[in-house]
Amino acid sequence: MNIVLDRPVLVLNRLWQPIHTCSVRRALKLVCLGHAQVVQTDGEARYQTHDFTSWVEHSSDNVADELVRTVRLALRIPKIIVLALYGRLPRKEVKFTRHNVFLRDKFTCQYCGVRFIERELNLDHVVPRDKGGKTTWENIVTSCIGCNTRKANKLIHQVNMRLLREPRIPRWRPLFGMKSEAPTDESWVQFLQPDRDTVRLSA
Ligand SMILES: [Zn+2]
What we know:
Strand content: 15-25%
Shape: elongated
Bound molecules: zinc ion
Radius of gyration: 22 Å
């Protein structure tokens, strides 16, 4: 397996806002299909964008960087891409995963209100499965092991517990979940600063 191809690439939407990361493999595919361009920064907030042909040419003039080789081409590894899609952006949803439930609940037990590290947390069915509770955003909350054990398969009022807040489907927003994924490349930093737009507007 080629590990270089699995490295993360920062993906910007067409408003140049960071939306998520993808692998080098996927980034190159998007650029090759014309759905994205590679963003190259020179470290001084100047950017150049390259389509696939231009990236191929650029890769051949610079041999200092790491290259990923395909059967016929040697390409530089993109660090950032910007999507070229026009029209409406696809509606995004936050994937229902264990980690994303913890993120929604800010790693805080929804019963006792204490913040824990991820491995000391559990997911709890508010309405237990054996009482018909579903495994959905609205019925799953972050719980510490102590509260989880105390609640067991009861309803909250039966054990005199209450929820900090009603669990809901989180609204997707740029960078959901990216906090845990620290920038792996310095060139990302300028795009990840939340006040970047404000700074630019007031400059
Ligand atoms: Zn707790």
